[in-house]
Structure to design on (413 residues):
């Protein structure tokens, strides 16, 4: 059996590759750079280097479709935001190719934070109060009426790119318009204003079968990069009844089929779980799920082959996993000069000494990805992101930019 796994640089893509390899599958791993850790796993039988999803979406689609039509695959597994591009040409995939690529409109309904907020309001799903000004007049009105502090966030992004907090009217106005100018946003793309909830972040990854949850992992981010939002590079599997209940309600209302990750902030005072973001794809929690006893890989295989997967709704609590290379970046950032240096440095050394975790990258019987990741993370974080306006940190090249894709795919057609 042969599977094609894309976005091989992602830590969870490496977990996917290894999981298929452990099951005896032949794996083709794809990415837009040869400096991709997943390409060097011993479980990879073939490497596919394709054009950048971020910068050359039309060329990426042409290359991928050619690969799928010229070479037989038993399964297609998009691991990151290339899923959005593939969904746009879902009808051009080989007719007998098993996959779990959702319809494009359904993906964008939850990926776009403005449409997600409307969906939550329509279906009675708890989420922070959110508005989206479409011009400067609406911004001025919102600035005078909103409660502070307020969160400013881009409608379509990940890793907290562009997210900022305003504590007063003047800060809101200047930071908001700066985002609009930097990303050249039009009215429908203008950033959102969202009420700030004082609470704890709780994340999740679910597998759904036509709106029914069959696999779940809820986890607490022990550390994030950047702090306060972004990638949870150190995480712990937990059970959380309010989060699980809201998630089941949301997934049922969507009729979701496949992977979906839901991010929450749980109010410290009331215990209410507010849905703040949805990632309609696998996430860095994939490896934690496998370690906690949730076989997401087998569930994916079963659903793609139109079988009923065995439900796994009781992951082991207390299991921890960590992306060590991202932790090193976080550690170095804590040591940069600035406000609260000694407090940050003390915290950095305390966290860095913590053990009791399962590494997301390092594996004794598969060491090459660790060596490549050491080069890859720093190359993309410190070189690529200094010369390109990033919408997704070190995943640049795999992030989906709808405006660019709209223009380039139209030109290609």
């Amino acid at each position: 059996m042969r599977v094609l796994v894309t976005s091989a640089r992602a830590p969870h893509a490496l977990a996917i590759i290894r999981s298929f390899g452990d099951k005896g599958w032949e794996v083709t791993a794809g990415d837009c750079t040869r400096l991709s850790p997943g390409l060097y796993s011993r479980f990879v039988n073939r490497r596919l280097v394709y054009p950048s999803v971020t910068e050359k979406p039309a060329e990426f689609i042409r290359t991928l479709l050619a690969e799928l039509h010229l070479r037989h695959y038993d399964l297609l597994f998009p691991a990151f935001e290339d899923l959005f591009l593939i969904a746009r040409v879902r009808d051009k995939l080989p007719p007998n190719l098993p996959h779990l690529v959702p319809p494009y409109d359904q993906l964008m309904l939850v990926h776009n934070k403005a449409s997600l907020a409307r969906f939550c309001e329509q279906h009675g799903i708890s989420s922070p109060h959110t508005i989206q000004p479409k011009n400067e007049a609406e911004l001025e009105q919102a600035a005078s009426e909103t409660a502070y502090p307020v969160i400013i966030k881009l409608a379509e992004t990940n890793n907290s790119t562009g997210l900022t907090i305003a504590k007063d009217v003047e800060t809101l106005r200047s930071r908001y318009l700066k985002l609009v100018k930097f990303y050249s946003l039009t009215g429908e793309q203008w950033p959102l204003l969202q009420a700030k909830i004082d609470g704890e972040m709780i994340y999740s990854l679910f597998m759904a079968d036509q709106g029914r949850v069959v696999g779940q992992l809820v986890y607490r981010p022990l550390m994030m990069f950047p702090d306060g939002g972004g990638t949870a590079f150190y995480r712990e599997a937990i059970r959380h009844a309010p989060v699980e209940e809201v998630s089941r309600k949301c997934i049922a209302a969507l009729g979701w089929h496949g992977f979906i990750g839901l991010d929450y902030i749980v109010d410290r005072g009331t215990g209410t779980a507010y849905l703040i973001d949805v990632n309609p794809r696998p996430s860095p929690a994939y490896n934690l799920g496998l370690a906690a006893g949730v076989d997401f890989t087998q569930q994916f295989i079963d659903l793609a082959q139109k079988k009923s997967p065995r439900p796994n709704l009781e992951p082991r609590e207390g299991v921890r996993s960590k992306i060590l290379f991202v932790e090193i970046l976080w550690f170095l950032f804590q040591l940069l000069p600035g406000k609260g240096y000694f407090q940050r440095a003390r915290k950095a050394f305390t966290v860095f000494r913590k053990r009791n975790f399962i590494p997301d990258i390092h594996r004794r019987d598969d060491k090459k990805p660790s060596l490549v990741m050491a080069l890859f993370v720093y190359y993309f974080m410190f070189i690529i992101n200094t010369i390109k306006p990033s919408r997704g940190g070190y995943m640049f090249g795999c992030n989906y930019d709808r405006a660019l894709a709209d223009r380039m795919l139209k030109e290609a057609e």
Summary: DSSP finds 14 helices and 15 strands in the chain. The chain has a mean pLDDT of 90. The radius of gyration is 21 Å.
